[in-house]
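Bit of a strange request maybe. I'm writing a small parser for structure token strings and I need a real example to test against, not something I typed by hand. Could someone generate the tokens for this chain?
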Amino acid sequence: MNISILLVYGEGGHHDQAMRLMKQMQALDPKIDFIHVTDTVTMKADGIDRIYTVPPIRHKNESFNLLSFMNAYLKAVILTVKLVRQYKPRAVIGLGPGICIPVFMTCKILNVKKRIFFEDWCRFTSKSFSGKACLPFSTRFFVQNESLKELYRDAEFAGRL
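Reply from user aminoacidic:
Good idea to test on real output. This should exercise your parser:
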């Protein structure tokens, strides 16, 4: 029987970290089946079978737009409900971007037992918006730079992915 895990990430460094983590975990247990949730369509080229996309929660270089935020948030919630019902994941792992927020909140409500968040590796002196929002919904919270342990008191140091 395979173990399903939702893997939530964005583009660039988030994607790279997700791929490294996925390969490390599959080397330990080949029965792990990852269901990918991302906010960019560029990941389709990686040859990943189960990849689902939703609009980004926010665009970094644009001003905040409540309508597009609500649209993306609701789409992410609806998708997460469908994926949890279909795959019954044992865990959700988030790697940084805003798309993790509605997924983690929904997974907590739907009683996904393990909700593991990795704060972005490029953070040294400040918390990310996603990290602050996902912390209350996470069962484990990892930082990739030891300096962040001062900001996130209950976080675990993971080293870099």
